[in-house]
Design goal:
alpha+beta; 13% strand
């Protein structure tokens, strides 16, 4: 409705403008008709224009709409009555035109003043400075025409034709054209942002693996924002930050391996304090930023960073790290920062999803009590990492007396014993090669391909068990030339372990008998 009112306004004004050229009169051969109509075009155009002005205001009062409708209708009645009832020549009805134009100007001023007062009371921004300027030009033109008509007479610039009003309308039209182009530009930027967010959402929803999705999102963001690098830092235990994901433009050196242990104290805390104020850190010139933080400068300078934008990753009100881009175009820093603020929620969710997947993976492949691999983990190790064509060693361990310990001292003591067994085996063979097979049984692989070294590890394993007061039965096999059937090797180690276990229980029974005789 408001655009319709504006369109009608300019159509009527356009007809009013070309009336002086005599083109309509000549082409239609109705000189008298156009002479009469020209008296009514301006007031009705003003009516539609006032309606458009009201639609742009934050406060819309019905009284102003009624007055905008009544003024041209009253003018029409007055002109028709004056001409056809009282037989007054149209040239002598100019005061009526002057009065209507004056009332229109007053009405426009009242509408604008009322809107400004309303915005001021509520603390709102009117954002209509350009609009006020254009309307002011029209009102000034009308006022000058009125003054010319009253004080200078009809012969000065033909004031009844509205010369100054025409200039004011022209100024307003130019301002509105510039404004519409600005609106169009903003709309195009908004469409581009929407496209960017939609594409990021598609990447975030596609696939299953969170790592793959994060890398795809970083690549897309980095290319779209014309940055050198796009990356994610995550917070680790002890308030240490690690660069976990990175995309680099072609020709830019990766930095992910160099940014593993960035401390919070004195470094990241500078950005975290800034996040609390503005939610985004923007570095326009790294050399000037040196005055803010020398420590951050020393980290960024070797990476050939000149400009930088970073914003926190946040889940449930808690910072879990931050996202950033290096060397975005300096002229587009504000726009890039706004886009990043739109995307950071999606990235935060992806990082959170990745952490959730990591926990699920650990629950699936690791024993929750001892934190070593489980049966699924050893199967994956044997299928993906173990080369049975080369020499390797295999060890089976079984904690002795676990049931008795659970019965006499409680399961907490038994759990501690299992943790101790796992810790000793991990210290000797490494975390990735030790597995809990279930209950009190553990297995380990040695892939150093050296029989003597394997023997030394077994000796150290037994010594550590004794030092820790852990009674453990150990069965071990070393395959010097590799093997073809892994199952036989595991069965042999298992048999040797149970032989040691029988010896342990046989000796324990003998001790009990001797204690009974004594």
């Amino acid at each position: 409705y408001d655009l319709f009112a504006l369109g009608v306004t300019f159509v009527l004004l356009g007809l009013w403008f070309i009336g002086d050229t005599m083109i309509p009169q000549i082409t239609t051969r109705h000189i008298y008709f156009w002479r009469v109509v020209s008296y009514f075009m301006l007031p009705f155009a003003a009516s539609f224009f006032v309606t458009y002005i009201i639609s742009m205001m934050r406060i819309k009062r019905e009284i102003f709409s009624y007055l905008a409708f009544i003024l041209p209708e009253a003018y029409l009645v007055a002109m028709i009555a004056g001409r056809y009832i009282f037989k007054i020549d149209m040239n002598f009805l100019v005061p009526v035109i002057v009065i209507v134009n004056a009332l229109t100007v007053i009405l426009i001023i009242l509408i604008l003043a009322d809107n400004m007062r309303y915005c001021k009371e509520l603390g709102l921004a009117s954002n209509l400075g350009y609009f006020y300027t254009g309307i002011g030009g029209i009102c000034l033109g009308i006022a000058l025409d009125l003054l010319s008509n009253v004080f200078l007479g009809r012969h000065f610039y033909a004031p009844q034709k509205g010369t100054f009003t025409r200039l004011g309308v022209a100024v307003f039209a130019i301002i509105m054209f510039i404004t519409v182009m600005r609106w169009w530009s903003m709309e195009q930027a908004s469409i581009a942002k929407d496209r960017l967010v939609n594409r990021i959402s598609q990447l975030a929803m596609s696939g299953v693996d969170a790592d793959e999705k994060i890398n795809s999102v970083l690549k897309f963001i980095g290319e779209e924002l014309k940055a050198d690098r796009a990356y994610v830092f995550e917070e680790r235990s002890g308030r240490i930050f690690e660069n976990t994901y990175e995309w680099c433009k072609e020709g830019v050196s990766p930095q992910i391996e160099n940014l593993k242990d960035i401390p919070y104290e004195g470094v990241i805390e500078v950005w975290y304090r800034e996040y609390e104020k503005t939610s985004t850190v923007m570095i326009y010139d790294l050399e000037k930023y040196r005055l803010v933080s020398e420590d951050i400068y020393e980290i960024l300078k070797p990476q050939d960073i000149n400009t930088l934008i970073t914003t926190p990753l946040e889940i449930n009100g808690r910072y879990i790290g931050f996202f950033g881009v290096d060397n975005p175009p300096r002229k587009a820093m504000t726009e890039v920062a706004e886009i990043i603020r739109l995307l950071v929620f999606i990235l935060s969710q992806l990082v959170s999803e990745k952490e959730y997947q990591r926990k699920l993976l650990r629950y699936s492949f690791y024993d929750s009590l001892t934190e070593v691999g489980n049966r699924r983990s050893i199967t994956a190790f044997e299928n993906e990492e173990l080369d049975i064509s080369k020499p390797f060693g295999f060890v089976m361990c079984d904690a002795n007396g676990l049931k008795l310990l659970n019965d006499e001292k409680g399961h907490e003591f038994g759990d501690e014993m299992l943790k101790d067994v796992a810790a000793v085996m991990t210290e000797v063979f490494g975390e990735s090669r030790v597995f809990r097979m279930g209950g009190d049984e553990f297995a380990a692989y040695d892939t150093d391909h050296d029989k003597e070294l394997f023997g030394a590890k077994l000796g150290r394993l037994k010594d550590l068990f004794k030092e820790g007061d852990c009674s453990v039965s150990v069965g071990a096999v070393f395959c010097e030339d590799g093997c073809k059937e892994l199952g036989k090797i595991k069965a042999e180690a298992d048999t040797r372990m149970y032989e040691k276990k029988r010896e342990y229980y046989a000796g324990m029974n003998d001790r009990r008998k001797r204690q009974g005789l004594s």
